[in-house]
Amino acid sequence: MYRFLLSRQWVILTLVALALIPTMIELGFWQFHRHERRVAQNTLIADNLKASPVPVEELSSPGHVVPRADYWRRVTATGTFDTAHEVVVRRRTSSDDRVGAHVLTPLVLKDGRIVLVNRGWVPGAANQRDYPDVPPAPKGEVTVAGRLKADETTGASGIKDLKGLPDRQVMLISSRQQAELIGREVLGGYIEQTEPEAAGGSPEQIAEPDHDSIGAHMAYAVQWWLFAAGVPVGWIVLARREKRDRENGTADGTTDGTTGNGDGDGDAPDGTAPEATQEDGSAIQATSPR
Asked: Which UniProt keywords apply (predicted)?
């Protein structure tokens, strides 16, 4: 009945189906885990943005690696800006996707240590090797507030740390690199400034991270699982159709053929031998042997 399943064509089809089912299930779980991570990140961002601000010295120190639990924590810092060691971070986009740079200015704290402050976005220069037009930082002692961020790495950001860049231009925000350039202790991570707002709106402050949308990962996960469930269903439908087509083909082959009556090849219905005829069509008289 189903012996055709042992044919080469059906063996290959079955193996492909068996390989697709676990693959699609795994892809579904991959999207599901991405959904879970997105939900967890949104919760973390929302909670940290709601938390009361604390002095940055309580959450970081020289050489400190900011843990994920402290990402986007609201912090404050009081000190004076060191514009002599200010740098710009290349190839950064604004809230409306214009390409420019972030302004990274060291803030010297009262104890002499330094924390890096990302003051915001400015348009890039016409020539990429030129230093962009950066509004000066406030003079004198200031108190800034913002979101604590971890040092950037190529692995986490996907941005290559290019060498041979023009003076005072960098690709990544790294407290370790800036500590070597400045020659002083720099707190790990940096502050993404939110207060006070810059005069004239430049540098343009970085927008708050999105923590409302969850993306379509859950929908993709359900789609992959539905595809996995559809593979065996499709296999069964194809197998039953093949069986039906073969049965119909066999039935057609037996009913269309013609067969004799089984009494002899070419005999007349009454069992007598057919009458012989001459070339002119007249019958030949049969004679009995003497």
From this structure: Cell membrane, Membrane, Transmembrane, Transmembrane helix
pLDDT value, residue 253: 63
Q: Are residues 60 and 188 in the same domain?
A: yes
Banded model confidence at residue 84, pLDDT cuts 50, 70, 90: very high
- Domain end, chosen from 149, 172, 201, is at 201
Cβ burial of 177 (10 Å; 0-12, 13-18, 19+) is middle
Q: Are residues 56 and 170 in the same domain?
A: yes
Confidence grade of residue 53 (pLDDT, cut at 50, 70, 90): very high
Lowest mean pLDDT among 136-150, 247-261, 272-286: 272-286
pTM of the model: 0.73
Residue 255 lies in a domain: no
Using CB atoms within 10 Å of the CB of residue 148, give its burial: 0 to 12 exposed, 13 to 18 middle, 19+ buried. buried
| Residue 51: closest CA among 31, 29, 71, 32 | 71
Q: Are residues 39 and 122 in the same domain?
A: no
pLDDT over 70 (residue 286): no
1 lies in some domain: no
